[in-house]
Specification:
This protein is α+β, with helices and mostly antiparallel strands. It has three helices and five strands; from the N terminus they run H-E-E-H-E-E-E-H. The N and C termini lie far apart (32 Å).
């Protein structure tokens, strides 16, 4: 019985953490300079982008950033990366793992990504 109760409690905690994260992301989405986000779990994904026509491009960028950072840190024996930041002339991508979900936030270059990271981790 203890194992079942422990699993139930862990599932409830995970669901609560995910709901809390989703709420933070909805609030984040309303901030100026936020282009959108992709939150991907093992079975589901939540996507909110200002321009959904670019969904595939954003998804590929997000996935590639995670995969390549994993490959590089593994090759260098650095351990799991806490966050990934890709920056272009006008925009940034902040990618991180939160509650066993891959979160990618796309934003204008002027947005303070460190503040976002601290709020979401």
């Amino acid at each position: 019985m203890t194992d079942t109760n422990t699993e139930t409690n862990e599932t409830e905690e995970t669901e609560n953490e995910l709901e809390e994260l989703q709420q933070k992301l909805q609030e984040l989405r309303e901030q100026e300079g936020i282009i959108g986000y992709i939150l991907r779990g093992t079975k589901t994904a939540s996507i909110d982008l200002k321009d959904p026509r670019k969904l595939i491009e954003y998804a590929v960028l997000s996935s590639t950033a995670f995969e390549e950072s994993q490959n590089m840190t593994k090759a260098l024996q650095m351990g799991e990366p806490k966050k990934i930041l890709l920056e272009s002339e006008d925009t940034k991508l902040l990618a991180m793992n939160v509650n066993n979900h891959r979160l990618s936030i796309f934003m204008e270059k002027t947005v303070n990504h460190d503040k976002l990271y601290k709020n979401l981790k």
